[in-house]
Write a structure and sequence with these properties.
149 residues; alpha/beta; five-stranded mixed β-sheet; 20% strand; globular
């Protein structure tokens, strides 16, 4: 599958959760392992971000907090500091996202001004980041499902 096809799966997960946030984890570059949407409001859980939900599913399926193998996380939006750190702890080697926090002005008052690249740079592991995959479609999710203030 291409990066665009995988991002479309993340977009579908976002739409299913009726939020702008969806994530997909792929093993060895092609095998879709999990898909998840944001459940912060539905579960009343501030850690219910799509990326964290996907990583939780991956850990449960594998029976390991940091499963063996090469994993890529696709996210409709740039992972926040919590999600980026969770990727590190889970051993995710690559993150691909559609739109970044710079694409929005004051869209989330709770967003900490720390980019996921900054989190990854502080890790002893090497990580790859790819941005802008289906950026406009991912930005459209924020218009379709605006965040509650």
């Amino acid at each position: 599958m291409t990066s665009e096809e995988l991002m479309r799966l993340a977009i579908a997960a976002a739409k299913q959760s009726q939020t702008p946030f969806g994530a997909v984890i792929v093993k060895e570059g092609q095998q879709v392992v999990v898909q998840a949407g944001n459940t912060v409001q539905t579960d009343q859980d501030p850690t219910g971000h799509a990326e964290v939900n996907a990583i939780r599913q991956l850990a449960q399926q594998s029976g390991q907090a940091a499963p063996a193998g090469t994993y890529t996380l696709y996210s409709t939006c740039e992972p926040c500091a919590m999600c980026a750190a969770t990727c590190l702890w889970a051993g995710i080697q690559q993150v691909v996202y559609g739109c970044g926090v710079d694409d929005f002005e004051n869209s989330n008052p709770n967003m900490i001004d720390v980019r996921c690249e900054e989190i990854f740079q502080r890790s002893p592991q090497k990580y790859q980041i790819e941005t802008g995959i289906l950026r406009d479609a991912c930005k459209q999710l924020h218009e379709e499902f605006p965040l509650d203030d």
